[in-house]
Write a structure and sequence with these properties.
Largest sheet: 5 strands, mixed
Shape: globular
CATH architecture: 2-Layer Sandwich
Order of helices and strands: HEEEEHEHEE
Number of domains: 1
CATH class: Alpha Beta
Structural class: alpha+beta
Strand content: 25-35%
Oligomer: single chain
CATH topology: 60s Ribosomal Protein L30, Chain: A
Distance between the termini: 13 Å
Number of helices: 3
Number of strands: 7
CATH superfamily: RutC-like
Radius of gyration: 15 Å
Length: 156
């Protein structure tokens, strides 16, 4: 792909990278090693503010969670962009780990994390298809409803 292809695709889709929102010291937003890059967990932040607080199945709907997961994926792309200099260096999205703050009887974590998976597939096409885990948890940092980690393979 020519340089700037992914940036053009983001613009075409009307998607904005709202970050990067780096983690606190001594953590890194992205670790690059042996041809892969892995992000730290990304919360649904826009302009530094969390956009979706609470628990799915309690105060947050599946649609609100899906939208929050999409924001998390965009924030993962923002930290990858900062670390790599260009998202065109991404050869393939390998895996997404999604955490969903869930009420005890909530079982729709995959539907929530679909928001992140859709963003990555829309942006990268077939290279955005990935493996995934959608995990329900009792609580997430700062009362965020969703958190996403992304691992990608890099081009040589």
């Amino acid at each position: 792909m020519p340089e700037g292809t992914i940036a053009a695709r983001l613009a075409e889709l009307g998607l904005t990278l709202h970050g990067p929102h780096p983690p606190h010291d001594p953590l890194d937003a992205v670790v690059i090693h042996n041809g892969t890059a892995r992000t730290s967990g990304q919360l649904p932040r826009i302009g530094g503010q969390l956009t979706c607080l609470g628990r799915l199945g309690d105060t947050v709907t599946v649609e609100e969670g899906r939208q929050a997961a999409a924001v998390c994926a965009l924030n993962a792309l923002a930290v990858l962009h900062e670390a790599l200099g260009s998202l065109d260096r991404v050869e393939r999205v390998l895996t997404v780990t999604g955490f969903v703050s869930s009420a005890p009887d909530f079982h729709e974590q995959p539907a929530v994390i679909d928001g992140a998976s859709k963003v990555l597939a829309d942006v990268f096409g077939d290279a955005g298809r990935h493996t995934r885990s959608a995990i329900g948890v009792a609580a997430l940092p700062r009362n965020g409803a969703v958190e996403i980690e992304v691992t990608v393979a890099l081009k040589d």
